[in-house]
Every structure is written in C-alpha cells, then in structure tokens.
UniProtKB/TrEMBL annotation:
Top EC class of this enzyme: transferase
UniProt catalytic activity: ATP + protein L-histidine = ADP + protein N-phospho-L-histidine
Pfam families cross-referenced by the UniProt entry: PAS_3 (PF08447)
Single Gene Ontology MF annotation: protein histidine kinase activity
Gene3D superfamilies according to UniProt: PAS domain
Keywords: Kinase, Phosphoprotein, Transferase
Protein name listed in UniProt: histidine kinase
Keyword check for Transcription regulation: no
Length: 136
C-alpha cells in the first residue's frame, strides 16, 4: 500500500472528525456519539457545561442521571443496541445547583451499505417545562 495515500486518507478523516466535533460543540443542546457497542466516544461542550463532568470524560455518565431513572436507562440503551431505536425521558443533574431537569434523549445509529451500525448519534432536549405543565 502506498504510504502517501494512507497519510492523505488519514488526514482527511482527521479534518472531517475535527469539523464534526466543532459542529457538535456549536449546538445549543447536549449531544454525543457512541461506538457500535454503545460506549460513549464523545460528549459536546454543552454536556460538560451542564453536568460538570470533566472535559473529555466519557465514562461515568450514569452518575449524573437521577438514581431512580438510571437502571431503566441502562436497560433501554442496551436494548436499543439491538433494535436501533432509542427515545427516553429522564432526569439529569445540573452541576451548578444540584437540581435535576427532565430531558428527552434520542439516538439513531448511522449504518453502512451493509446495514451495519458504524456509529450512534444522540441528543438531549430539555423538556422540564413540558413535564411540569403536564404532570398532575
């Protein structure tokens, strides 16, 4: 294999990844990526600002989930790795004041031409006001 072609391809992939993460960091809502096994690869800046987790820390995210929601979320996420469908409403702790707010987390897998998952993309939408308005 021609090493120069490999270097060009690697450089192009690095630039694409840089643009992707810059785009995700510019979004006003929290978002993430995960590998095919469900391991979080990346959280954007909004996630770290809200949760107070250390920048580039991707493990331990369950610790910012409301304790009564965490086991349900883990089970649902593990199930989604098989079904390819993930939509959950749950509470996430705000690091600034320790309060929990409701979020709708949605994720979808990106698949290759053989319909195999190559990466997951997920977002969090703050639904606290809607939950308070509709809850008895």
């Amino acid at each position: 294999m021609d090493v120069s072609i490999y270097k060009q391809v690697k450089s192009a992939l690095d630039v694409s990844y840089k643009y992707l993460t810059e785009f995700m960091d510019a979004l006003p809502q929290m978002c993430w990526t995960a590998d095919t096994a469900g391991k979080i690869l990346y959280f954007n800046k909004a996630w770290y600002a809200y949760t107070g987790m250390m920048h580039n820390q991707t493990q331990g995210w369950i610790n910012v989930i409301y304790p009564e929601d965490s086991s349900r979320i883990i089970a649902s996420w593990n199930n989604s790795l098989t079904t390819g469908d993930y939509h959950e409403e749950y509470r996430i702790r705000n690091s600034k004041d320790g309060s929990y707010r409701w979020f709708l987390e949605q994720a979808m897998p990106i698949r290759n031409e053989d319909n195999e998952v190559i990466i997951w993309f997920g977002t969090y939408t703050d639904i606290e006001n809607e939950k308070q308005f509709t809850e008895p």
